[in-house]
Amino acid sequence: MIVWLRIAFALTVIIVVSVLLIPLQVLALRFDWKLRRTLPRRWHRIVCYCLGIRIRVRGTLESRRPLMLCSNHSSWMDIMVMSAVADVAFIAKIEVRDWPIFGTLAKLQKSVFVVREEKRRTGHQASEIAARMVDGEIVVLFPEGTTSDGNRLLEVKSSLFGAAAMAVPHSPTGTVMVQPVSIAYTQVHGIAMGRYHRPLAAWPGDIELLPHLIDILKCGAIDAEVSFGEAIEYGEKTNRKDVSATIAASVRNLLNSSLRGRDIA
After folding, report:
1. Coil, strand, or helix at residue 143?
2. How far does the chain reach from its first CA to its final CA, in angstroms?
3. Could you say which of 63, 84, 99, 231 would form a disulfide bridge with 179 (CB–CB 3.0 to 4.6 Å)?
4. Bridge partners of 92?
5. Statement: residue 166 has pLDDT above 60
6. Which among 168, 185, 159, 152 is positioned nearest to 237, based on CA atoms?
7. What tens digit of pLDDT does each residue of 26-76 get?
8. Of 69, 62, 76, 214, which is closest to residue 143 (Cα–Cα)?
């Protein structure tokens, strides 16, 4: 009974806050106010608090711009956690645009929707991402292209790193910063989350969304750790595949460090 009362309270707060902030975000998008970049962070912080997602940050967000963040991806919660930490825009697969609730939220955050299967559109998509970075936005790329089980980093696809290359000629410094980030779900109710409990936080995609969301609401106490690694300068002569491999290795190390409870060297 207490669990359902807590869920009802959390949903009520989320709905009230959404009713207040979403119309303001729509206006901010319509008139391109700077508020459109900062308002989602405030909304996501409130939602994470209501869902019982406690966030710990290790390392520092790169201060230089343009900036692309490259992170592992294990759940829809990654969006909320990362958005609660920084003012970011996401690169999402086109299917997300039509998802109930999350598709609307992605559009309100002005995500860049891409069609990975159509190589002829890759150039245009990368150009849009580059333009957003040059304009000062922090863009988040999930280079795995799909969600994992939360225990490991899948193979990283290098194609969309081309957006960083396109932004280089328009950067005041002639470089674009590419920073590795890991998002790890480390504890549930204060107890280390092992492989057995990892499905509670991870959403590989073969699980229905609504039951997974209800499980998160019932749990009400998940610890997430966001770790920022050392950023790489992407310049005119930088090899995209080399950057992809370096970023993948860094994200993998950051993720393993968080899951094993060890300090990052």
Report:
1. coil
2. 45
3. 231
4. 113
5. yes
6. 168
7. 999 999 999 999 999 999 999 999 999 999 999 999 999 999 999 999 988
8. 69
